[in-house]
Design a protein that fits this description.
CATH architecture of one domain in chain B: Roll
Largest sheet of chain B: 5 strands, antiparallel
Strand content of chain A: 25-35%
Oligomer: heterodimer
Structural class of chain B: alpha+beta
Largest sheet of chain A: 6 strands, antiparallel
Helix content of chain B: 10-25%
Largest interface: A-B, 54 and 49 residues
Order of helices and strands of chain A: HEHHEEEEE
Distance between the termini of chain A: 9 Å
Strand content of chain B: 25-35%
Structural class of chain A: alpha+beta
Number of strands of chain A: 6
CATH superfamily of one domain in chain A: Hotdog Thioesterase
CATH topology of one domain in chain A: Thiol Ester Dehydrase, Chain A
Number of strands of chain B: 5
Number of helices of chain B: 4
CATH superfamily of one domain in chain B: Hotdog Thioesterase
Order of helices and strands of chain B: EHHHEEEEH
CATH architecture of one domain in chain A: Roll
Shape of chain A: elongated
CATH class of one domain in chain B: Alpha Beta
CATH class of one domain in chain A: Alpha Beta
CATH topology of one domain in chain B: Thiol Ester Dehydrase, Chain A
Number of helices of chain A: 3
Radius of gyration of chain B: 18 Å
Chain lengths: 190, 160
Amino acid sequence: MSTRHPGAAATPKGEERVFTSSDPAVGTYEEALAHVGRRSPRYFGEVPISEGAVKMFCAMVQDANPAYWDRELSEQIFGGRVAPPALVQGTVLPLPWKPTEDEAQSLAVFAVPLPGRTLINVSTEAVHHRPFFVGETVSYFDQILDISPQHHTRLGSGHFITTVFHYEDAEARPIATITNVMFRFGEEGA
Amino acid sequence: MTSVPVRDGWASLAVGELLPEVVLQVTEQTVILVPVATWDLFPGHHSPAYARAQGQQDMYLNTIALQGVADRAVTDSLGPRTWLVRRKLEMLGSVYPGDTLRGAATVVAIRRRSLDTAGSPDGSVEADFGVEMSTGRGPVLRAEITARRYHLKEDHEREP
């Protein structure tokens, strides 16, 4: 369970606490408002996109698109083994454990201190600037655009956080820009 | 080169057309594949107990998976030469193991333009779609999708 860390949500470096989707920062709406405009560091995917990742994603949603299953066809159409656009967000998420002490990912969205202890996505708008391919390593960072006043929903009371995620290639050229609205809700101690 | 005929639904596309329905039987395995396929370790997608504490019925599909299913509503019909350039997706409800997720895309607009000698003889075409998907409990997502018939010479931005 999260503990209250007012002021611990500045862009994390070194000794700053790392907040995650299952352990976001907790605080007040007033403290949260100071986070509008903040952005995370840029993080790289642990590994390049693999053919296995593409096929497992397609297996999950039962996508038979031959662009993802036929190497030659994908090369012919796209000039490489293309990955499903929806998978871009799944190319950069961190491992739950590593033997090394690299800097852990700490996105700006989870560092926003709010009373709600849990979260759920509400909407997302993606612009895919170009196809991306098996063998590429994707990087990303996020920036807080807006934090709403308290709203009451069927899931409970909470706040909507609007964040923009920038997905880029190794040379920081854009792959996708995704604007996401997340609902932070749940009472303290829940 | 592949010798298999490649389906291409762009030529016959018409505004107002309802594309064939996409159906996904969602099982426990489907939801467990969320952390496997997307590395999304948020416990709502693998822990029924956590999900219920959130007010959910069970663990549920994540946004990435829902986007993948919504995209199928367009690409299943239009074929592999389709590249999705924009998707706005609104989550209206959660999708749990045991659900049948189904829905379809409607063609909202089509933009065709001629290409010069470097382009395809089929011309360049881009279209907007509205997608609605539901389970037995009602609507779970609404999406706006813009897709383009992909032309390697025109659109490919990778370094050689």
